[in-house]
Amino acid sequence: MATETTTSAGAAPALLDFTRFYNIINGKLTTTAKTRHSINPSTLEANPEVPVSTEADVDRAVDAARKAYSTWRRTSYAERRAALEAYADGIAANVEGLATMLTREQGRPLALTRMEVATTAERLKETAALELPDEVIADDKDSGGQTVVKRYTPLGVACGIVPWNFPVGLAALKLSAAVLTGNTFIMKPSPFTPCANLKMVELAQQFFPPGVIQCLSGDDSLGPWLTEHPGIDKVSFTGSVATGKRIMQSCSKTLKRVTLELGGNDAAIVFPDVKDVAATAATLAQACFFNTSQICIAVKRVYVHASIYAAFRAAFVAAANGFVYGDGLLSTDPAPFMGPLTTEMQYNHVQTLLDDVRATKLAIVRGTDGRDPLATATDTAAAGKGYFVRPVVVDNPPDTARVVAEEAFGPIVPLLQWTDEEDVIRRANDTRLGLGASVWSADLAHAAEVARRLEAGNVWVNTHMMSHPSAPFGGHKWSGIGVEGGIDGLKQYCDIQVLYLAN
Ligand code: NAD
User: Which ligand 1 atom is the nearest neighbour of the CA of 241?
Assistant: First the structure.
């Protein structure tokens, strides 16, 4: 039997309670008859119970979103901006609680989940500061007595389908662009990381009218119910290529607008003239193994010029072996940099890649302590529990090896040698994916030339993974359709309307 509790709209940002979790439908905390839980990937203990939504819950949320849309779309941009700014303050006031929850369900060490939540609060403010004014394309003087104005009108009800790797930050990107442009929004968290997402939407009820921002948690049936629903106008999805294709197919039936932020297989090309080989290797190791390599724009293939390969490899492996890993909620000294893989499925996927490395007899670079990098962690405070995998560096495998050709989404990284510039550009581009890439060289002009030839939505020189609040983020080729972030990200939640105003 479902129950509903009213939330405290209008009160000062309260600290969230992380013991009970609800769907948020029409401003109310709502329970479901059935519940489920995710698993703490560090300890394999159960996380708190969360709702399992039914199709009737989806209908109720969509009805509430449609009703709320009829008034929310008419609020002023300034009013929506103010609500978003206040919400950002609410998130900032709850960094500790949200980050702790995130570590329990996602696995990333606490210092790094704190960073995700704090950055989310900043990004919400930065998004709120964006402008999307009407544009006068022609005024009556130069168009025969007619003024032509381009406007951006909201789409209606938007749905954000969120993955488990950066659930708070990625959900906030979708939510903020949707509601700032006058849409209402329904969030669907990943079943692996529902708790922080449910709480961030519970918090939003203090700043937005009922029905403007809602959240439904559930099992594998929930996503398809949402993408099929005729009352939803837009789906913004972040996740795997395979699911992205299914979502596009499902959305086509009702011509929903779709944004897809999908997987990547980012290449880094290291030139022989980098200023400091060891420092570059250490920086790239971070870009490979941060979040236990579960980042769409983690570096996943490192092409190193043959003349510096040996020195680079030594420094890269030293850095990788130096990363402390373990349960991110335990206060070890030093604190861990890497947590476990977030899901059993991901852990098993990485094991199949490791099996492939063994079966095809690819060379693995061992740390100086000679420990077996293919073994799972047994020397952490987690005492053998959890989905831990040590960083594994594969030494110059062929480009056809699975670990090069596929997105591992786990800490198994190939170092590859190159000698010919044209050839390495071809190799970097030889993938269906095109999310990110980077070029590392002291010759900035030449590096920028190479960068322009890489087929990816984000290309960096002498850095990787950097982002900017005004910059759009999206993938080329099979890495996605559309963008998030910046003004272009706002436009993804709008139709264009052209007004022709004759005298
Ligand atoms: P996933 O595709 O398995 O799931 C993502 C979300 O989609 C989850 O909420 C899931 O429940 C939902 N879902 C699954 N099947 C669905 C269906 N048929 N209809 C509707 N919803 C459905 O992805 P994941 O494993 O959670 O995330 C990892 C992937 O996401 C990696 O490939 C990674 O590169 C990618 N990713 C991309 C970006 C980006 O911005 N481009 C960012 C983060 C992650």
Answer: 32
Q: Say yes or no: 229 and 200 in one domain.
A: yes
pLDDT value for 376: 44
230 with 282, same domain: the answer is: no
CATH number at residue 394: 3.40.309.10
DSSP state string for 150-195: EEEEE-SEEEEE--SSSHHHHHHHHHHHHHHTT-EEEEE--TTSHH
In the reported structure, the alpha carbon of residue 244 is separated from the centroid of ligand 1 by a whole-number distance in angstroms of: 7
Rounded to an integer, the average pLDDT of 155-176 is 98
Q: What is the whole-number distance in angstroms between the Cα of residue 238 and the centre of ligand 1?
A: 5
In single-letter form, the type of residue at position 485 comes to G
Same domain membership, residue 302 and residue 275: yes
CATH number for the domain including 180?
Answer: 3.40.605.10
Q: Which residue has a Cα nearest atom 39 of ligand 1?
A: 261
Q: What is the domain extent for residue 394?
A: 266-467
When comparing pLDDT for 254 and 146, which is higher?
254
Residues 248 and 387 in one domain: no
| The dihedral formed by the CA atoms of 242, 245, 247 and 252, expressed in degrees to the nearest 10 | -170
**Identity of the amino acid at 341:** L
Whether 173 is covered by a domain: the verdict is yes
Q: Is the pTM of this model over 0.85?
A: yes
Terminal CA-to-CA distance of the chain, rounded, Å?
A: 60
Rounded mean pLDDT, 59-73: 98
> How far is Cα 409 from Cα 97, in angstroms, rounded to an integer?
27
Which tens digits make up the pLDDT trace of 280-291?
999 999 999 999
Nearest to 47 by CA among 88, 102, 10, 122: 102
- Based on the domain organization, do 84 and 181 belong to the same domain? yes
Flag whether 330 is in a domain.
yes
Domain assignment of residue 62, yes or no: no
Domain identity same for 492 and 451: no
Amino acid occupying residue 228: E
pLDDT of residue 503: 80
Q: 485 with 458, same domain?
A: no
Peptide bond into 411 cis (omega under 30): no
Q: Assess whether 253 and 279 both reside in one domain.
A: no
Residue 79 has pLDDT above 60, yes or no: yes
Q: Contact 295/165 with Cβ under 8 angstroms?
A: yes
The stretch 437-452 carries a mean pLDDT of 98
Q: Is the CB of 191 under 6 A from ligand 1?
A: yes
Q: How many structural domains compose the chain?
A: 2
Ligand 1 mean position to 348 CA, how many Å?
17
| DSSP H or E stretch at residue 227 | helix 222-228
